[in-house]
Amino acid sequence: MSAEPLFHRLPVEPxxxxxxxxxxxxxxTTYDFxxxxxxxxxEDDPPETLYDLAVWSRVPQPMDPGRQPLPPGHLVLRVAGxxxxxxxxxLLRKLVxxxxxxxxxxxxxxxxxxxxxxxxxxxxxxxxxSRIVIGVAQRWA
Length: 141
Known about the structure:
The chain is mainly beta. It contains 1 helix and 9 strands, in the order ββββαβββββ. Strands 1, 4, 7, 8 and 9 form a 5-stranded antiparallel β-sheet that branches. A 4-stranded antiparallel β-sheet has the order 2-3-5-6, with no helix packed on it. A hairpin with a 2-residue loop joins strand 5 (73-83) and strand 6. The radius of gyration is 16 Å and the shape is globular. The relative contact order is 0.28.
């Protein structure tokens, strides 16, 4: 039986807005992270409007798939790490805020714990109340 990896919080700066990119060392190796949001509608919403993406992951699925409510958008995470011929993409995926859902990215484990995005932080910066918590851990040492 293997032990649960120790997750650390990635240095996402919600007030910096989306998209954003940053470098982060995990276990002695530096990785490039890029995070962006893909949202539809809401152009007329005030900047303080909060979209809690976890709500949509908890919505019960209706019997009629044609009537399934759609989330206002989603987050996409891209992780690149060192490869034999230069950087290589380890993960490019939509993320769902489910703390128990772990995504594999080569030697990394990633999970989106919380994702509440303010309208004002979509292609803009400022303190509007966005909260984005992503954990990262080494899958093996």
